[in-house]
Design goal:
HIT family, subunit A; globular; three-stranded mixed β-sheet; single chain; about 325 residues; ten-stranded antiparallel β-sheet
Length: about 325
């Protein structure tokens, strides 16, 4: 029988549609193909095809030259512009402001054909350091209240270029979904004087049914009420509200965890397109006892349709307990 499950953090309901239950090979999808070899602005030698770099970790060469290992550049077609004032104003009952923000691209490697699942762990760690460094720099701008770090892998996930890259967008407002998550964490903390994410980590580690793997520093799990099949969370065991406060050992372990998790998903789901998003506290907030940064990976296996848009409910045809079992059995930990 189908189940309605309530997300313990946001209160969002999902339908686990067991009558439609799907194993990994039941999903109709296209695996992300190997990259082609056309002209790519992110390849070595094409540095002039991007805006001037903001940050680079190099083995050789000078600015905007080959020799980099990780390179950060402004997005050539930004969704928001960095220059100007917010100029908040009303238009009758409506509110508006200038589209101020920052939009950057983190080019993960000079290797056009690489993926995070097969990169060396040290390379992934440097990508995470670039995330951290850029957030620390951008949060000095008091106009920015939230910075989202995300990756679109594969055309089905919204990637317009094959070369491995992530993106960063700094916003002058806190997104509604972020505020809901932070506020829900605070309501739980006010009631119980505990972090809800810390409680989830403890419960899932003890129960084991939705646990994928864990180390001394991280837990990988399938959430109790996932919106999507094989939705996977990576959570630090040590409580921290801001990703950019993570220390060197944490980033080193996260690189291993992220690589291992993506390798499992690639094996079980045959190299799916996916999105990942770093959930972190608003950048102008002090450390929060009620919020816990984490990373969410969403393989693109189903589509959001009319029912989901109309109700806010999601239909998930794969119970998270099954997803966790498939990923545990995939090995590669």
């Amino acid at each position: 029988m189908p189940e309605l499950r309530k997300d313990p953090i946001t209160g969002r309901w999902v339908i686990i549609s067991t009558d439609r239950a799907k194993r990994p090979n039941d999903f109709i999808r296209k695996s992300v193909p190997p990259p082609s070899h056309g002209v790519c602005p992110f390849d070595y030698g094409n540095e002039h095809k991007t805006p001037p770099e903001i940050l680079a970790y190099r083995s050789s060469g000078g600015r905007d030259q080959p020799g980099w290992r990780v390179r950060v550049v402004p997005n050539k077609f930004p969704v928001l512009g960095i220059e100007g004032e917010l100029s908040r104003e009303g238009e009758g009952m409506y509110d508006k402001m200038n589209g101020i923000g920052a939009h950057e691209v983190i080019i993960e490697t000079p290797d056009h054909a690489a993926t995070l699942a097969d990169m060396p762990e040290r390379q992934i760690e440097e990508v995470l350091w670039a995330f951290r460094e850029r957030v620390h720099d951008l949060k000095k701008d008091r106009r920015f209240r939230y910075i989202i770090l995300f990756k679109n892998h594969g055309e089905a996930a919204g990637a317009s270029l094959e070369h491995p890259h992530c993106q960063l967008i700094a916003l002058p407002v806190i997104p509604k979904r972020v505020k809901e998550e932070v506020d829900a964490g605070k309501a739980f903390y006010d009631l119980k004087e505990r972090c809800i994410f810390c409680d989830i980590i403890r419960q899932e580690s003890a129960a084991g049914v939705r646990l994928v793997m864990e180390t001394d520093r991280f837990t990988v799990l399938e959430p109790y009420a996932p919106r999507f099949p094989f939705e996977t969370w990576i959570l630090p065991k040590r409580h921290e509200s801001h990703f950019e406060d993570a220390d060197a050992p944490t980033l080193q372990d996260l690189a291993w965890m992220l690589r291992s998790t993506l390798r499992k998903l690639d094996k079980v789901l045959e190299r799916p397109a996916y999105n990942f998003i770093v959930h972190s506290a608003p950048v102008q907030e002090p450390p929060l006892p009620h919020y816990h940064w984490h990373l969410e990976i969403i393989p693109k296996l189903t589509k959001v349709a009319g029912f989901e848009w109309g109700t806010g409910f999601y239909i998930n045809p794969t119970p998270p307990e099954e997803s966790a079992r498939f990923l545990r059995e995939a090995g590669l930990g």
